[in-house]
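We modelled the chain as a single entity of 565 amino acids. Its sequence is:
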Amino acid sequence: MWQEIIYPVAFVLLVLLPAPLLGNYIYRVFEGKIRWLAPVERATLACCGTDGREQDWKSYALSLLAFNGAGFGLLFLILMAQGLLPLNPQQLPGLSWQLAFNTAVSFMTNTNWQAYSGEASLSYFSQMVGLTTQNFVSAGTGAAVAIALFRGIARQQTINLGNFWQDLVRFCLYVLLPIALIMALVLVWQGVPQSLSAYLPFHGVEGQEQLLPLGPAASQIAIKQLGSNGGGFFGINSAHPFENPTALSNWLEMVALLTIAAAMVFTLGRYVKDMAHSRAILGAMTLMLVLGLFVSLSQELKPDHALAQLTTDASNMTGNWEGKESRFGPVLSSIWEVATTAASNGAVNAMHDSFTPLGGMVGMINMLLGEVIFGGVGSGIYGMMLFVLLTVFLCGLMVGRTPTYLGKRLGITEMKWVVASMLVMPVGVLVIGGVTLLMPDASTIIGHDGPHGLSRLIYAYASAAGNNGSAFAGFAAGDNWQCIAIGLAMLLGRFGYIIPVLAIAGQLARAPRQETSEGDFPISGLLFVTLLIITVLLIGGLSFLPVLALGPVAEHLSLIGGAFG
């Protein structure tokens, strides 16, 4: 019983306590006040062909798109030509173009959706040079966009938002690399492999000959958690004992899911010089996270309806253990599920398909809201800022005043971009995902009839459009059409937010700052937190109520009816 209370509380505290210090450090990094690797920074920027001159939002966006496009092309070629490249002791062949496209898009967009099993499909070269590199730079891209937005809010009457190349290099060099190095060493200490040796043959308990997969896993796992990436080195991700061997490694990886995302809320406060506003945003995120933890834990700790009739001893009904690693159980698995879907990460230590309908729905809702409950590195806070602007705008109109945010007037241009971003998840999930239902082999792809099949489909496309990467089991993600369709949803989910955010940043940077007055809508305190949460839930989730009712809610009701009918 004590685990049900102490573990969630400890998790939330471990995420929040270091956030102010780390957020201040990130601010100092982006403002050039941390320079202990200045020679490496200058050399890297010289290779990028930039002198660090500041850019307007269009130049910033073009640099970002060019870099991400080049990263996609290089990773696509690596995956296709894998069989000809070094560090391939198992002589694994290259991927099909559809799967290579899906994987390259996935890691370039910080989604890390995996339609393959890592140890059976990818060489060490592909994992290290291809995937791990993208884990760093895709997280750096998200952080750079968030910082550009912070600067746009903080500055006035300028077109400059910083330099994309400089922001990317600084974040990777001073934030991600040192923390990932320390975390990787701890994971090696805990038993995670970090090797270039070929797979080791061994005889199983029944005498059959098998191969023990190895590889440079610790270095990829560290950045997959810190950078809100989530792509596992092995097929079953952090449920694999080589990726997550101990209780310490489980807690370390679980806390790392949200650490940098939480810190960047305080980075916003440093830029806009309003820490109370940052604390209010963090409070809204934390309350929604805690609500998700409560629902998921309450559902997963109940006995399975299908098994409840097999025993009358209440002490044996310890929760839903199906699909759970016995080392972690329902409590730690539930915390991880909520954290990884709130973080836009996608790493898993349990099978989400085996969660109860309402327990699995929590992860689904976290993604459908646009991954703003902490969210990914950078992407979480800039996604939440869109809801902040919308909340301030709507409340300003309701009281008959011109909406202003931190001294900047919010006009029709900013709101057009905000509304455009709000269409990303409905289009990515309901439109692109809905096409799958029209395919002649839809039942084969989904792998399940009825409400649970719909839940699988919605979860898959919410994960893609939300740049999360996790999935329910049984979904034929490797199908050629799914590789392309899910790839398109991932692209929409990434750049459908980035372009509006940069455009809003450019618009706000040009605007003059006005003196705040007592009539302005307060952006801190309980009222603001409440209205922000309501806006996120209503605007972010209203489009998906019908499919949630037909999917997980209907499945839950059918299970209850089957148990008591």
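As a brief sanity check on the tokenised model: The longest strand covers residues 200-203. Residues 124-154 form the longest helix (31 residues).
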